[in-house]
Amino acid sequence: MKHRVVVIGAGFAGLQVVLGLKGAGCEITLIDRRNHHLFQPLLYQVATTLLATSDIAWPIRALLRERRDVTTLLGTVEGIDRDTRQVVLRGGGRIPYDTLVVSTGARHAYFGKDAWEADAPGLKTLEDATTIRRRLLLAFERAELAEDPAERQALLTFAVIGAGPTGVELVGIIAELAHRILPAEFRRADTRKARILLVEAGPRILPAFSADLSAYAAAALARRGVEVRTGAPMTECSAQGIVVGGELIPARTVIWAAGVQASRAQEWLGAKGDRAGRVMVAPDLTLPGDPAVFVLGDTAHVVSDGKPVPGVAPAAKQQGAHAARTIRARLAGRPGPGGFRYRDMGNLATIGRNAAVIEYGRFRLKGGLAWWVWGVAHIYFLIGARSRLFVALSWLWVFLSGQNSARLITQRELPKDR
Ligand SMILES: Cc1cc2nc3c(=O)[nH]c(=O)nc-3n(C[C@H](O)[C@H](O)[C@H](O)COP(=O)(O)OP(=O)(O)OC[C@H]3O[C@@H](n4cnc5c(N)ncnc54)[C@H](O)[C@@H]3O)c2cc1C
């Protein structure tokens, strides 16, 4: 019987494992609760009407159609039985493994205030993005209908909580939408009066970047009419608005970009985790004491060169490639590559049209050139010619016409399936 590798999660890490095992002679089962692989770095552009869902996600089954050694299963994992070496699916199905790869990513963390999720959705899945897009567009529509000026202003107040790259990218586009694109289309509501707030508990925005790039980003946002509030956390959130630094700010649209927590893998494995619930792994990315189990990407606490590896896409892909090399070596009876070493690919964030920041070691770039580099890098990392072409054309269209094209309100809000 062939060696059975089961991979849970077809995100950046899981997919890379499957790609790295091409021709290895094993039987691979890839399980994901969604039918698509998602390019999360551009999710905010779906949420803010720049891109369509199919531009940044691909059916997993179609990506692996040539791989006769891979079986793709649409299923939600609810447990792992390490004694019998089986993965337990919702509904009771069990999938046996010889080697298991757990790469189920991360989810939002509301720091114990889970009730905020209803009023401040986070951005992690395509459903999250279309929910946020729907709320954004409906807020403008309702402002156009509103008779009461205070209600209209509350509808035109948008708050994003958390000023990492996602928060900064969201407010940058919302400001462009409200202040530049929509004013010509609304008659009763003056969307130029929209308030866009970026709330950050820490002392500065983009804390992972150097202080000068963070200051540049804050100034660029201010020029776009974004109010940046640092140094005070949001302490309350309801359908009426938010409280920041003791002040109640009526805001009908709030987006959470403040924290993540690892998937439930730690519980499934009964393993030791860090404060964010990430599984502590051995240097070769396996579970200490159980070399048959690899834990990768956002769901793992990985240390490289004495430092924790950040939860970013390149880190997840590199870990996926490393795990695949280790599995291949084991199957061939060769010594494995040993401990994982992370190659830092730098930090990138856009602030809006013609403004971005890039940091790679000591190299720093900001402004229009950084924006173009950011764009080219993201197009390069998309999968397939169709997506690259469509995204490049969408961006070119927005750049030349000043119009965002994915502005349809098409669905009711759906109950969460987490
Ligand atoms: C909005 C946003 C913007 C980001 N921007 C950037 C950026 O600009 N640059 C960057 O480098 N990184 C960025 N990241 C981080 C990056 O996307 C993650 O670090 C990366 O996706 C981690 O890869 P992963 O394989 O660990 O998890 P993921 O890519 O999240 O994949 C996890 C997979 O597991 C599946 N899954 C989860 N639970 C289950 C279950 N119970 N059963 C079955 N399947 C399950 C999910 O459906 C998913 O397909 C961003 C993340 C977000 C959310």
UniProtKB/TrEMBL annotation:
<dbReference type="InterPro" id="IPR045024">
    <property type="entry name" value="NDH-2"/>
</dbReference>
<keyword id="KW-0274">FAD</keyword>
<protein>
    <recommendedName>
        <fullName>NADH:ubiquinone reductase (non-electrogenic)</fullName>
        <ecNumber>1.6.5.9</ecNumber>
    </recommendedName>
</protein>
<keyword id="KW-0560">Oxidoreductase</keyword>
<keyword id="KW-0285">Flavoprotein</keyword>
<feature type="domain" description="FAD/NAD(P)-binding">
    <location>
        <begin position="4"/>
        <end position="320"/>
    </location>
</feature>
<dbReference type="Pfam" id="PF07992">
    <property type="entry name" value="Pyr_redox_2"/>
</dbReference>
<dbReference type="GO" id="GO:0050136">
    <property type="term" value="F:NADH dehydrogenase (quinone) (non-electrogenic) activity"/>
</dbReference>
<keyword id="KW-0520">NAD</keyword>
<dbReference type="InterPro" id="IPR023753">
    <property type="entry name" value="FAD/NAD-binding_dom"/>
</dbReference>
<dbReference type="InterPro" id="IPR036188">
    <property type="entry name" value="FAD/NAD-bd_sf"/>
</dbReference>
<comment type="similarity">
    <text>Belongs to the NADH dehydrogenase family.</text>
</comment>
